[in-house]
Amino acid sequence: MTFSILSVCTGNICRSPVAELILAERLARFPDVCVESAGTGALVGHDVPQPAQRLARTVGIDASAHRARQIDLAMIREADLIVGMSRDHRRLIVESLPGAMRRAFTLRELARIADVVEPELSTIIPSSGASTVEDGMRAAVALAAALRGTVPPPPSPEAFDIIDPYRRNDDVFAQSFDELAPAAARVAAFLATAATLTDPR
Questions:
Q1: What total of structural domains would you count in the chain?
Q2: Which of 23, 163, 186 is nearest to 111 (CA)?
Q3: Torsion of CA 30, 67, 40, 194, to 10 degrees
């Protein structure tokens, strides 16, 4: 069964598609992982602005084919992991479907949790009974949700958010990318570690 990741921002043109593509590229060796993105107020059909495309290319990502789409309940319901670009996105997701709470994080929140809890994966994954890549990743998400309250918060809650660069200057696009790209890579590494504990590909 496919492990599905949903990346969410507001317009689905700046932050969430770049996060989607970084996650997809970093997890490409696992064929049963599907990464998509959507917006809570999507600019449906619009592409990724040129500043974001240029920054994505610096890490080997081509975002030119992306077209924005609006999030819906089916996407939330079907996702094994939902990463919002801000606390507002996470809140809207959980308000739409309270049952998604244990699968919904901000991207930077999950990256921060991963730094702390990843050493637990070598114990948790084998004891979870996970026998497939997808089950290993689900177990990792469950661990992150269970331990989220034990991870010390950042000095400022804004550190859970990625700044929205829409209609702003190149410096803000660069700041947004610098917040987003390492977090996406960290989350991908966390999931890949869980996967390789069940399937060492």
A1: 1
A2: 186
A3: 10
In a domain, 201, yes or no: no
| Position 59 in a domain | yes
Tell me the C-alpha distance between 137 and 142, whole Å.
9
Tell me if 175 sits within 8 A of 162, measured CB to CB: no
Burial of 52 (0-12, 13-18, 19+ CB in 10 A): buried
Phi, psi of 19 (to 5 degrees): -60, -45
DSSP secondary structure, 25-76, as one string: HHTTT-TTEEEEEEETT--TT----HHHHHHHHTTT---TT----B--HHHH
What's the CATH code of the domain at 108?
A: 3.40.50.2300
Range of the domain at 186: 3-196
Mind spelling out the 3-state secondary structure of 83-113?
EECCHHHHHHHHHHCHHHHHHEEEHHHHHHH
Q: What tens digit of pLDDT does each residue of 64-122 get?
A: 999 999 999 999 999 999 999 999 999 999 999 999 999 999 999 999 999 999 998 99
Residue 16 lies in a domain: yes
- The whole-model pTM stands at 0.95
Can you read off the two tokens belonging to residue 194? 């869980």
> Is 170 contained in some domain?
yes
